[in-house]
Design brief:
It is a single chain. The protein is an alpha/beta fold and 541 residues long. The protein folds into 2 domains: 217 residues, FAD/NAD(P)-binding domain, CATH 3.50.50; 271 residues, Polyamine Oxidase, Chain A, domain 2. Strand 10 and strand 11 form a beta hairpin. The chain is globular.
């Protein structure tokens, strides 16, 4: 069968782009190395039967403001059963001194909780929320606009009355913003716990906006899809197939087919070739992509950009099937939350950052996410049972002379459980009926594009953001090889479940095909043209 677009990788971003292309009338083939589509948006029975575990992402807060869902552009909610829950409490965190913090969807309740520690900090939180509300549309618009297809964030802020203030806040580190605004160490630690949700160094210059990420949670909680993260993938695959697209799993792309200097298809590791009449779209990690074509296909500056690209912080995950959820004991009674965790003091988190930068094994538990989505979504586990996931940062490699990861990872997971039981004592060992622990090498083995077990697509500091992602000059999804496009977490605006790289890539590809996404969405587009429109402007013009 002939295809207009061949897509390498079935992560949620490449599926989103494929859906828009299919809606426009293009025949799309999506290939994926794994046994199921979705990449980081997958729900699997990793434990006992009936326990549906999000193997990577669980929270979908950021994609909720994507026009894909905000306007239901593909009918995923209307026609394909995608439904989101907004758990309340939003989050619950325990501190080293035995204190607890519960964040609520009710804004005033959250302010009151902060006031327990500091009235001044409570007022700062109120003011920060108000100030962010005034500019959040500018930041959101930039996220969902391809580089070069609209004003940059700097341009947008330059026209705003408070633009100079936000220019400074963006350039600061998240820790700089937090310690400037808040004085109580409990509040500072909670804000840092929130700021680290995307595994970006909170003490690096240029990460100041991470200090404001809490307000997305304040508005929409830690949004989760009913049935698991894979329900987003299920809806996308359903839409794609209903519009003539095809998804084939267990097909790993090993090589790009380049003829006459143009990418015309892909070859899988089993030797099968798939040709594309219009374009090839990749969600392969750029570190791997560059090895899939002859070296002289890539300009030296692109190669340098990829060689110096930071793959990001590695992760450590432990999954449990349980007969009860973790219940945090507080003076006001037991508290359970879909998104909960443990956090050290600010000094502990600064040390964590330094240790991660140096590749030191993290022995303690300075930052831990405890996800229990079955608290609000009983479809994820048999009646009366739960799924619990512990997620934390970790060094990609063990120190020289250490025992094997198989031994170390089990001990580390047990240490994390012991730390959790200090605050949730009823979550005893007999509560756990099955477990699976993944160290960074295990995460990479389960998805080869999660290099070193890093699952957010790469660092999002200033050196790897906006027009510099994945490499300077190639941030608008067009790769140096004509006919080849890139999406996924290595492209603007980065990883996490946002759908932004996928929708942005669709905007660019459709533009080059002589189409506009707005017309495709409104069903006013004409039949697909025969060829790509010549692109005269530079990649990031």
């Amino acid at each position: 069968m002939d295809f207009d677009v061949v897509v390498a990788g079935a992560g949620h971003n490449s599926l989103i782009a494929s859906c828009y292309l299919a809606k426009a009338g293009y025949r799309c083939l999506v290939l994926d190395a794994r046994h199921i589509p979705g990449g980081g948006a997958a729900t699997e029975e990793l434990l006992d039967p009936g326990f549906f575990v999000d193997s990577c992402s669980t929270g979908h807060t950021l994609i909720r403001i994507n026009p894909l869902l905000l306007d239901d552009e593909l009918g995923l909610e209307r026609d394909y059963g995608l439904t989101y829950l907004q758990p309340d409490p939003v989050a619950h965190v325990a501190f080293p001194d035995g204190e607890h913090f519960t964040m609520s969807l009710d804004f005033e309740a959250t302010v009151a909780e902060i006031a327990r520690f500091s009235r001044a900090d409570a007022e700062a939180y109120r003011r920060m929320s108000r100030e962010y509300d005034e500019v959040k549309s500018l930041f959101n618009a930039t996220q969902f606009t391809p580089v070069g297809f609209g004003p940059s964030l700097d341009q947008r802020l330059a026209e705003h009355p408070a633009g100079k203030v936000w220019a400074r806040r963006r350039a600061l580190s998240a820790w700089d913003v937090i310690r400037h605004e808040f004085s109580d160490r409990h509040v500072q630690a909670f804000m840092l716990w929130m700021a680290f949700q995307t595994f970006v160094f909170y003490d690096s210059p240029g990460t100041g906006m991470l200090a404001y990420s809490v307000f997305a949670r304040q508005a929409r909680s830690w949004s989760i899809p009913v049935g698991g993260s894979g329900r987003l993938t299920h809806g996308l695959v359903g839409f794609l197939e209903a519009h003539g697209g095809t998804v084939i799993c267990n097909k790993r792309v090993g090589r790009l087919l380049v003829e006459g200097g143009r990418c015309v298809g892909v070859e899988t590791t089993d030797g099968e070739r798939f040709r594309a009449g219009k374009a090839v779209l990749s969600t392969i990690h750029v570190k791997h992509l560059i090895d899939m074509a002859p070296a002289d296909s890539w300009p030296e500056e692109f190669r340098y950009g990829v060689e110096t690209y930071d793959v990001g912080i590695s992760g450590f995950a432990a999954y449990f099937a349980t007969d009860r959820p973790p219940v945090f004991e507080t003076p006001a009674g037991g508290v359970s939350a879909v998104s909960a965790g443990l956090v050290g003091w600010p000094d502990d988190l600064i040390q964590l950052s330094a240790d991660l930068r140096r590749g030191r094994f993290i022995d303690g538990v300075p930052w831990l996410l405890v996800a229990t989505p079955s608290l609000v979504d009983p479809s994820r586990a048999p009646e009366g049972m739960h799924t619990v996931k512990l997620l934390s940062p970790q060094a990609a490699r063990l120190p020289e002379g250490s025992e094997s990861w198989d031994i170390v990872k089990d001990r580390h997971a047990r240490n994390q459980l012991a730390a959790l039981r200090r605050f949730a004592p009823t979550f005893t060992e007999d509560a756990i009926t099955a477990r699976l622990v993944k160290a960074p090498p295990d995460i990479e083995r389960s998805n080869i594009h999660m290099i070193n077990g890093a699952f957010h697509g790469g660092d999002r500091g200033p050196a790897f953001s906006g027009p510099l992602r994945p490499a300077p000059g190639w941030a608008a999804h067009r790769m140096p090889i004509p006919g080849l496009y890139q999406t996924g977490g290595t492209t603007h605006p980065g990883g996490s479940i946002t759908g932004a790289p996928g929708r942005n890539a669709a905007i660019v590809l459709l533009h080059d095909l002589g189409r506009e996404l707005s017309d495709v969405v409104s069903d006013t587009a004409s039949a697909a043209p025969d060829a790509l429109v010549a692109v005269a402007e530079p990649a990031d013009a």
